[in-house]
Write a structure and sequence with these properties.
It is a single chain. The protein is of the alpha+beta class and 371 residues long. It has ten helices and 19 strands. The strands form three sheets. Strands 3, 4, 5, 11, 12, 13, 14, 15, 16 and 19 form a ten-stranded mixed beta sheet that branches. A six-stranded mixed beta sheet has the order 6-2-1-10-18-17. A three-stranded antiparallel beta sheet has the order 7-8-9. A hairpin with a 2-residue loop joins strand 7 and strand 8. Helix 1 packs parallel to helix 9 and helix 9 packs antiparallel against helix 10. The longest helix is centred in the last third of the chain and has 29 residues.
């Protein structure tokens, strides 16, 4: 079967690899004109995805990411109040994307293709891109994220809804930390919970996937409640452009950065406040909720963030995209017709997404975050 995937991010690549592994002819169409870089920071990776990538030869235990054997919970003075064993590997958006992109055939990955329209006629889906080029395919899969064009075609009234809080994020090169600071964070997942907020930190690979000591980065994420008015102000970047779901690194206004650092001095223990102070280019992600009533219509499918959004506290966003992709490839092999396969897949994945969405909301509520 000829499969066309809209969106060449992590979800699109995972879907493309899974579909190729089961014998389908796959092409990925990415709207960016060049290789994607700097889209997000640290990622907590679930064991299922890590094991899949290792089993498929995409990565290896040694190269997958930065492990952490311990989780430490800090008190108000910045000292570990208690700790326990932790079995998690941390990577970064850039590094994971680079590994997947290197594995997927370059000839089947097409940059600079912005989908603007699609139509279904019988057993064929036609897609039209902004440059006027067109494709015909047996199955079109939307893996194009928050602002999915494919989802807008299927469900024009559904869009992400603000959850009432944001995540500030930052990356600090390891060589900018002292030996004592590195020792404090290395091989650990650090968490500081306090009233209506929490901050977490862990080491991730360097910008180009470096895993050696001294070449990694410290990733931190700080969740803070924001009113609609505060959010509107925060989303206006340094060029006066109003952003929708994130303000990337180097685009936050100086006033917003100053406010963040002042708040860090007031609310965070020194070991964490100092990390916020020394971060040159913090960025911000808006936390949103979204779910669709159905993940397909005819021969058009949406998955990953194009279909549902889960709170980052679940550490399941990337894993959910993998599970959507792997399950889709499996049902297409197991069922005799496309219609029966998609019906079964839709039931399974909607149920899974609903559980994750509910779980994420419970975690946020327990931390005093959001609506």
């Amino acid at each position: 079967m000829k499969v066309s995937i809209i969106g060449g991010s992590i979800g699109g690549l995972l879907t493309g690899i899974a579909m190729q592994k089961t014998g389908h002819q796959v092409d990925i169409y990415e709207r960016s004109a060049t290789a994607m870089q700097g889209r997000g920071a640290g990622l907590v990776v679930q064991a299922e995805l890590m094991n899949y990538m290792i089993h498929q030869g995409i990565s290896s235990h040694q190269l997958f990411g930065v492990p952490a054997a311990q989780r430490q919970i800090l008190n108000g003075q910045g000292y570990p109040a208690y700790s326990y064993d932790n079995d998690t590997s941390f990577t970064s958006w850039n590094y994971l994307w680079q590994q997947l992109k290197a594995y997927f055939p370059a000839a089947n990955y097409h940059y600079n293709h912005q989908l603007v329209n699609l139509q279904q006629t019988g057993k064929i889906v036609n897609g039209t891109f902004a440059d006027g080029s067109q494709i015909e395919t047996d199955l079109l899969i939307g893996a194009d994220g928050y602002n999915s064009v494919v989802r807008q075609h299927l469900f024009p009234d559904i869009a992400p809804l603000y959850a009432g809080y944001v995540a500030y994020r930052g990356l600090i090169p390891e060589d900018e930390l002292t030996a004592e600071e590195i020792d404090f964070f290395a091989n650990k997942f650090t968490l500081y919970p306090y009233s209506n907020s929490h901050l977490l930190a862990y080491l991730v690979p360097g910008n180009h996937g470096e895993l050696g000591k001294g070449r990694r980065q410290l990733n931190w994420v700080w969740y803070l409640n924001k009113t609609q008015a505060q959010l509107k102000d925060l989303m206006i970047d340094k060029n006066g452009v109003e952003r929708q779901y994130s303000v990337p690194a180097t685009f936050l206004r100086d006033a917003n950065i100053a406010e963040l650092k002042t708040r860090a001095q007031i609310e965070l223990p020194e070991i964490l406040s100092a990390r916020v102070q020394q971060t040159q280019n913090p960025f911000v992600q808006v936390i949103v909720d979204m779910a669709v009533p159905k993940m397909y219509q005819g021969r058009v499918v949406i998955l990953g963030d194009a279909a549902s959004l889960v709170r980052p506290h679940t550490a399941s966003g990337t894993a959910k995209a993998y599970e959507d992709a792997a399950a889709l490839a499996a049902v297409l092999t197991d069922h005799s017709t496309l219609a029966s396969a998609l019906q079964r897949w839709n039931t399974m994945q909607l149920h899974h997404a609903a559980e994750l969405i509910s779980y994420g909301r419970r975690l946020a509520k327990g931390s005093g975050l959001g609506q």
